[in-house]
Amino acid sequence: MNIDDPRLDRLLDAAAAEYRVPEAPPLDAIWDRIDAELAVRPIVAARRWSAVHWLATGGAIAAALILGVFIGRRSAPTAPAVTVAALAPAAPAVPSTDPYQRATDELLGRSAVLLASLSPDAKHVGPGVGALVADQGVQLLNTTRLLLDSPVGTEPRMRALLEDLELVLAQVTRLRDNDPPDDLLLIHDALDQHDIVPRIRSAVARNALRYN
Amino acid sequence: MLIPVKAPVASLGDDERSLIARVVAGDRTAARVLYDAHAARVHRLAYRICRDPGLADDLTQDVFVQVFRKLETFRGDSSFSTWLHRVTVTTCLNTLRKVNRHASRERELDESHHGFAVPAESDGGDLRQALTQAIDGLPDPLRVPLVMYHLEGFSHGEIGEALGIAEGTSKRRVFDARARLRVALAEHQEAP
User: Fold this and answer.
1) Cβ–Cβ gap A2/B182 under 8 Å
2) Which residue of A167, B67, B116, B180 is surrounded by the most CB atoms within 10 Å?
3) Reported ipTM exceeds the 0.90 cut
């Protein structure tokens, strides 16, 4: 027997009162935990990044990326391969031209630049910016997911970074023009909670050393 | 030092804006008033999305701590409750993604357009019980908009805003969810 729309509506109306209604949630106990957190870090002391702080962080990211590129170029193999082999015969040779690694480096660099462009102090997401950022976010998110399923994702530390980056990029893809600043703050909270930007810097530096 | 907070809930009639200003100024009694006004619905929404009572408790805590810390940035472009529920949904979905990351990656919308049967244990049960199980059996991208629209009374615009999808996408997902529920309930009724 078919369930027609009016009947389904009646069932859903009833479900509004019945579907997974928590039995006496411990709201007082939850408040006690919230209050304890607020006591440790009072609301008035909540941190907002100043433009100077943000510029300094953005500058540090840019400097780390430039340093990574510089180290990479300086230490690119210029001598014949046989010399390298003679110096480190037992080392597992992982070519710096590994396409996965190149894709990872590019992803991390582009992600760092994108995340640095999202100022938490903006009054709202600027016109035309939300769509642009979201579009880039979608591309980076797709690459992140591909890399998670690639050999790169088998390295535990890199996998953890990519998984956290995936969550943040998923939020970035939801940005729209003129979004209120709350959405940006949610993204920055996620960045802060997981130390994503410093971990990107470390990963870029690690990769530069490992493959050179 | 913790402020004793068996709160003066009677001041719920306070203008919300002034209440928010008091919270931003560090008044935890005002924070408790704001909490009392919204906690039950936030908890219910969290529970309905994550379906785990313990996790719903934790999420409610996380949501309010986040909201209180960001309250100074709240400019009132939308109502406080709209903002609060958006934070709730975002927090719940992020947590769900983290908890079920591998499962959710495989559970894409396009993966299966076929219907699903209500689990066998519902056979012989009443239709409402079957409906609960059928809703639980929906994939999250369909279940969450359905729960928000039909059970929590959000508009498609609000759902779109909270989930980061277009209003039309919310409508389509609710439509698809209803179609799956109809199939599941019909199968339930036809079962011996």
Assistant:
1) yes
2) B67
3) no
